[in-house]
Amino acid sequence: MKLPVIKHLTNFIEENDQDYVLETIETLEALTEVSSLKDEELDVIGELISNMYGAIEVHKMIKEGTSKKEALNAFMKRVLGSIDN
C-alpha cells in the first residue's frame, strides 16, 4: 500500500463519492478472472484494489470524526503492524 495513493484517493472520495471507488474495485476484481493475465499484472491490480480499500477505510474514520492526518497515520500503523506480525 502506498500512503500518497491512499491520500489521493481519500481526497477523490471527499470531492466525489465513494461509490465511484467501490464500482472501480468491482471492475478490477472482475478483471482478475481473466485467465491470460500475467502474475505481474495481477499484482498491479491487487495493489490498486488494496489502496482503494485503504482509502475507503480512511474515509470512514474521517466521517467518524478523526482528522485526515490521524486517520491516514492510524491506518498505515495498522497495516504495518499486520505485516510485522
Note down, in words, how this protein is organized.
With 85 residues, the chain is mainly α. The protein has helices at residues 3-15, 18-31, 39-63, 68-84. It is built from four helices and no strands. The chain is globular. Helix 1 (3-15) crosses helix 2.
Quick recap:
The protein is mainly α and 85 residues long. It is 81% helix and 0% strand.
Q: What descriptors fit this protein?
A:
single chain, 85 residues, mainly alpha, 81% helix, globular
**Total number of β-strand segments?**
0
What gyration radius follows from the Cα positions, in whole Å?
14 Å
Helix count equals 4
The helix/strand class is mainly alpha
Low-pLDDT sequence parts: none
Largest sheet: none
Strand content: under 5%
Query: First CA to last CA: what distance?
Result: 17 Å
Question: Helicity range of the residues?
Answer: over 70%
What sequence of helices (H) and strands (E) makes up the elements? HHHH
Overall pLDDT confidence: 93
Give the CA-based shape. Answer: globular
